Here is the input.
Amino acid sequence: MNVVWIAMIASGCLTALVTGRVDVMMSSVLDGAQQAVELVIGLTGMFCLWVGIEKLAEEAGLIDALARGVGPVLGLLFPHLKGRRKPLGTVAASVLSNVFGLSSSTPLGLKAMAEMKEVLGDGDEGIDSMSTLAIVNAAGFCMFPSGIIAMRAALGSRAPALISGSTAVAGLAATAGALLTYRLLGRVFRERRG
Amino acid sequence: MNLLARVGSYAFPALLLGVPIYAYVKGIPVYETFVKGAGEGFRIALSTLPYLVAVFVGISCFRGSGALDVLSRWLGFILTPLGVPADLVPLVAIRPISGSGALALTGDLLRTYGPDSPTGLLASILQGATDTTFYVVTLYFGSVGIRKTGRALLSSLAGDACGFIAGFMAWKALVR
Here is the structure.
């Protein structure tokens, strides 16, 4: 991330200097910082709502039931979480939210990250499990991409949901590609550290 | 597809109503428990703030300076000969970097070409295919205070590329 961040800033500043767009770049950067704060504040209410609901589901034993139900399948992706119902149930809730296009995916995902860090620590096991959840949700496999379908409908499409088969195929490919790359990169990153 | 659409729109009220009622029947103090969880959600949301500011500053520097336009011109040299409409190349470049930027661009494309035109369909597929990689990876790792995210970020970007290729091929099959 250090390299990516410095590369974004350096290439941005360099381009701005070359093309004489320093003013535009500066106001864009200040806007960006402000947008980040506005985004977090805007999301906070939704986070409170969903983590509140999740707490109820947890206390009522629903998250546990979810872990028992889909645990065996998710265990393939998260080998270190096998038999640990608490992160597994929250992970399942987050991934399922994504599949159905619900806004609860991100708040539950972050709660699952915290639970995984608590149970597995931030060594290799923890990092692998946390990275898997992050890249699965970044790939965002979705059976029903509600946002883009609503936009298409609003702009007068005759078949707003026509694309959902294609986005599902693309989302699956993105998930598989990301997971595979993560495995392949394992050796590179471990050598660099060791 | 209608069934899926219905599942999607009923899932929200079902959770909002079903979970508290089920918990109440089980004898759980629903109000106190919800408030406790909401407090946790509040702390999780706020803990991501410094990370999001850092990444947004990097991204807006990259975008505002025009470096993103340079990148999408380079991408165009590869993608246009492969059959990707030239107007869609900027969307490919911006999709993993900025969610709001990609959404605005998709809106423009759908308005210009019509949502059911070939270009509009591909724009919709690319928009719906993946999530905003930079944002998701930042948020997920930021919330637990982990800074070593290079491997996950690279993997997700490679995944995005796979998703775009698969989406492009699905689009070819769809418009043929």
Observations:
- The mean pLDDT of chain B is 90.
